[in-house]
Write a structure and sequence with these properties.
GO molecular function, one term: structural constituent of ribosome
Helix content: over 70%
Distance between the termini: 70 Å
Number of helices: 4
GO cellular component, one term: ribosome
InterPro entries: Ribosomal_bL20, Ribosomal_protein_bL20_C
Structural class: mainly alpha
Largest sheet: none
Number of strands: 0
Keywords: Ribonucleoprotein, Ribosomal protein
Pfam family, one: Ribosomal_L20
Strand content: under 5%
Length: 96
């Protein structure tokens, strides 16, 4: 019981006092945590793609052949737009 109550120390009212409700809330909390980890990854991936598209549409750079990480490309797009253009030009030049 004490181990279970340590887990529920920040729950409110009966959820932190009664053993049966603590176990139910613990199960519910762990399920939500697992689900939200996947949602967080999905949301960040969507954010990175949006940032990359915003910079690309500004200059009309084609990025079809870039096989870099979306996270890295998004950081480059925000911090240094010229660097993103240089990367895309280096990749697209040999294709012409």
């Amino acid at each position: 019981r004490t181990k279970i109550r340590l887990f529920a120390s920040n729950f409110r009212r009966a959820h932190s006092r009664l053993t049966r409700t603590i176990t139910q809330q613990k199960i519910r909390a762990l399920i939500s945590a697992h689900r939200d980890r996947d949602t967080k990854k999905r949301d960040f991936h969507r954010l990175w793609i949006t940032r990359i598209n915003a910079v690309i549409r500004e200059k009309g750079v084609s990025i079809l052949q870039l096989l870099l990480n979306h996270k890295i490309l998004a950081q480059i797009a925000i911090l240094n737009k010229n660097c993103l253009y240089m990367i895309s030009n280096k990749i697209l030049d040999p294709l012409k």
